Amino acid sequence: MPKLRYPLTVYPFHIDAMGHVNNTVYIQWMEIGRTLLIEAVEMPMSRIMQQGFGPVLVATQISYKKPLLLGDTVTASIWLSQLRGASAEMSFEFFNQHGELAAIGAQRGLFITLSTQKPKRLSAEDRDRFSHYLIEA
Fold first, then answer.
1. Most buried of the four, 54, 59, 67, 105, by CB within 10 Å?
2. What is the pTM of this model?
3. In CATH, what number is assigned to the domain containing residue 42?
């Protein structure tokens, strides 16, 4: 199954005192990927919220391999490495314009019912929507 790829550009406001992309920017880039993924499976946030549930993050992990610098162009990828009843693990890769791996990451998300803030199992139909991007290790 495919990974969802999306382009990113490093701008001056992404750069920290050490001269490379700040660690918090990767978390923002992961959020962009998650948003693109739910849109790609035809479950945009507006539709999910109207149905009374939504995604929350319970864990984030990032390993930095090579710094990204001002002006770099980045190709990011997201895919699901695990899909359960109410939760999913998303994996990420970030490559610079030379095809060099800059970082890898993972996030664990959980769907919750908005009114109760308790886990909500996805329907079989919704799970099937996500299966296109599922690459289990």
1. 105
2. 0.94
3. 3.10.129.10
